[in-house]
Amino acid sequence: MQKLIAWWFFTIRGWKVAGTFPFELKKTIIVVAPHTHIVDFFLGLAVRKKMHFEFVHFIGKKELFVGIIGVILRKLGGIAIERGKNLNQVEQVIRMYNENESFHIAISPEGTRKKVNRLKSGFYHISRNAQVPIVLVALDFKNKVVVFGEPFLTTADEIADKRKIVGFFKGIVGFIPKYSITTDIEG
C-alpha cells in the first residue's frame, strides 16, 4: 500500500524531497508541519517509503487504535497514546525513548488538523528531557516539496529554539492554506 501511495505522490503528482533524513542518528523526534488535512498522513506514508525509513513511528490517541483500523495503524508504525487528566503524554513518549536503543517518532506540532493559535510544545519537552535531536520536516503543498531540516538539539535558550522552529515553517503552505503555521509555540 505504501509503495502505491509513494508512486502516486512522487511520480504522478510530481512531489520532490529537499534535504535528507539523518540515518546515522539512533533517535530523533521528527516534527512534521503544517498538518492541515488527512492527506498529510498519506504524504507522510509516501515519504517513509520513498526515503526508506519505515522504522519511523507516529503516535495517535488510543481511541483511534480499535478494530481493523487499529491493526492497520499499528502495522504502519502507529503507537497508541493514552490521554486523560492523570496521564502525561510527554512522559509516555520520553519513556519510549528511554526504553529503546533506537527510536524515531514523527509528531505534528499543531496536535490537530485545524487552525491553531499556538503550536503544542510537547515535542520540544520530549526532545529536551530525552536528549533527542529534533528534525523539522515541512510539507509544502504550494511547491510540492517535502523539506528536511538539519537535526538539532534543544539548547538552554528555549525562546531562541522555538523561534528557530516556527521560522523553519514560516511561508510553508499546507494542503488547506489558511491552516498553515503563522503562530508561536505555547510555553
In what range is the share of β-strand residues?
A: 15-25%
Q: CATH architecture, please?
A: 3-Layer(aba) Sandwich
What level of helicity do the residues show?
25-40%
Major sheet summary line: 7 strands, mixed
Regions with little confidence, pLDDT below 50 for 5+ residues: none
Number of domains: 1
DSSP summary: helix tally: 6
Report the principal-axis shape. globular
CATH topology: Rossmann fold
Radius of gyration: 16 Å
Structural class by SSE content: alpha/beta
Task: Pick out its properties.
187 residues; alpha/beta; Rossmann fold; seven-stranded mixed sheet; two-stranded parallel sheet; 9 strands; globular
What report would you give on this structure?
With 187 residues, the chain is an alpha/beta fold. It has a single domain, classed as Rossmann fold (3-Layer(aba) Sandwich), CATH 3.40.50. Helices cover 35% and strands 21% of the residues. It has a seven-stranded mixed beta sheet, sandwiched between helices. The chain is globular and about 45 Å long.
